[in-house]
Amino acid sequence: MSALFPSIEVILHAGLAVYFLGWVSGFQYYLFVLPVIGFFYPGKRFSVILTLCSALSFFVLVLLFSNGAGNVYFSDSVLLYFYGANVSAVITILSIFAYTFSRVVAQAEDKLQIQYERAENLLQNILPQSVAERLKNRREIIADGFTQASILFADIQNFTEFSARIKPNELVGILNGLFSAFDDLLEPCGVEKIKTIGDAYMVAAGLPEANGRHAEQILDFAVAMLSATQEYNQIHDLNFSIRIGINSGPVVAGVIGKKKYIYDLWGDAVNIASRMEASGAPGQIHITESTYQLIKGKYDVIRRDPIQIKGTGLMQTYFIKLKDNSSV
Q1: Which of 75, 145, 149, 240 lies most in the core, judged by the most C-beta atoms within 10 Å?
Q2: Whole-model pTM?
Q3: Is 27 within 8 Å of 18 (Cβ atoms)?
Q4: 3-state SS assignment for residue 259
Q5: What are the residue ranges of helices labelled H in 69-167?
Q6: Where are the beta strands (DSSP E) in the chain?
């Protein structure tokens, strides 16, 4: 240990000085510096050893020399000078140590606070805020049932073919730019991002806090997605078109796993929303009858002929009538 030999020297120096000059010289007080040194070295064991050595050495000096003079004669004025100088030096050294230690502690606390805030931001970017708080405060399975919620799936048309023609870093940059534009719309529309799967984007409304406007909120978000895609195309000279599918109904939401937490949804309503996206059309918002009943009168729709949906059968579905879209 780098501090072991200096610590031994302090003990020997104090002991010999008290032996020759006496207790009134004040050299014994340097032993109080030893415990402080241990705080600047990793591990508690070394600090404990230094503290015990300091206490034991001081106790021995008290027993041997506290009532007697030194073995070398000095006048009282010289001994008084030694005493004042040594006490002042010890106080100065301890003050410097205290100041330095407080600075180190403050810097460590600042770093811990920064790391804590980063961890908080990461957790809240992964999970809804209310769910993240529950996960931090209680070790329990997080699972909630919602009688009504709206789910949206969006997919970029022909993105697989597009991805084969450009470099990986360019591909990720383009996808990140577009999805970041979608992310900016989440809070204003009051919807919750669930996850991305490749070039697919999934959001929900009406959870983790239930509300009666979930269908309207998710339609507002869908319309904003189409506008954001057009703006992104104009800025980056691209020609992306997205298919959007929406369904409303009961879902189960919860957090699964021990690593890389994900807040996910389950239920037929989720599966049907995915089918709406797959059976939709580029640049269109494809909704089910259940969603239509919730937004009827708020959005104009184009009624489709019933279509065959895998796992469900014939379903009546609709396209949202957009200002710049004709019938499909």
Answers
A1: 149
A2: 0.65
A3: yes
A4: coil
A5: 76-126, 129-137, 159-163
A6: 143-156, 192-197, 200-205, 242-256, 262-266, 285-288, 301-303, 307-309, 313-315, 317-320
What confidence category does residue 94 fall into, taking pLDDT thresholds of 50, 70 and 90? confident
Q: Is 275 a catalytic residue?
A: yes
Decide: helix, strand or coil at residue 295.
helix
Closest CA to 245 of 209, 188, 283, 212: 283
Nearest residue to 209 (alpha-carbon basis) of 134, 261, 271, 267: 134
Active-site residue (options: 103, 134, 275, 321) = 275
**What's the average model confidence in pLDDT over 161-181?**
88
Closest CA to 246 of 212, 208, 202, 211: 202
**Residue 324: phi, psi to the nearest 5?**
-105, 15
Interatomic CA distance for residues 257 and 237, integer angstroms: 41
More confident residue, 259 or 40: 259
Q: Is the pLDDT of residue 2 over 70?
A: no
| Pairing of the two strands 285-288 and 242-256 | parallel
DSSP category for residue 211: -
The yes-or-no answer on residue 213 being catalytic is no
What is the distance between the alpha carbons of residues 182 and 31, in angstroms, rounded to a whole number? 65
Tokens representing 167? 């470099």
Residues paired with 92 in a beta bridge: none
What is the C-alpha to C-alpha distance for residues 23 and 15, in angstroms, rounded to an integer?
10
Q: How far apart are CA 286 and CA 301, in angstroms?
A: 10
- CA dist 216 and 221 (Å) reads 9
Q: In Å, how far are 93, 137, 220, 300 from 296, measured between CA atoms?
A: 79, 41, 14, 8
Given a contact cutoff of 8 angstroms between Cβ atoms, the answer to whether 218 and 152 are in contact is yes
Span 183-201, average pLDDT: 91
- Residue in the structure block whose two tokens are 């070790």: 139
